[in-house]
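Hi P.,

Sorry for the delay on this. The queue was packed all week, but I finally got your sequence through. Input first:
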Amino acid sequence: MAISPSEISDPDTHADLVNIDGSGSLDDAVIVALGCNDKGVWSDCREALEAALARFRTEGIDVVARSSWWASQAWPDPEDPPFLNGVVMVRTAHDPHALMAALGRIEAAFGRRRTVRNAPRTLDLDLIAYGREQGDRDGLILPHPRAAERKFVMGPLAEIAPDWVHPGVGKTARALEVQASVGRDARPVG
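Then the structure:
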């Protein structure tokens, strides 16, 4: 069953990036990207994304840092509604598979239906990185195999952790934002 705006309390999701793993190191950062281009029952995608962040806590996911929201044309079909995207760093006791399951439950609660690939969606939650883990973990590929190419992921990530180094590519979020080939029009909107 999908949740509605009236079911969400005022989200307190802003946090400073400190001591992600107790040491302040970005090596253990768990990074999740959020996106929306179908507002569903919400007044707009911003409200939907804020509500999704508020829902993280109920799934055992604590937001420790978040980017501003970034707008971009839909990809690969710019005729679809534009996207609003953001990135968060989280702290959780979930392993990668349990975290993906929790993110899937949040998507489902927000009315996400997987129909046609890249179709408009009420909520898209992607696990971008889980510390320095790399490779195929029983069907879960870490880090996210296309994140480094996407300005609407690397731009928001560079806002909160410009010196985070992609485990597979070996470049910082700041460098990857500049090099990103997908979503070149992405820009912060607050």
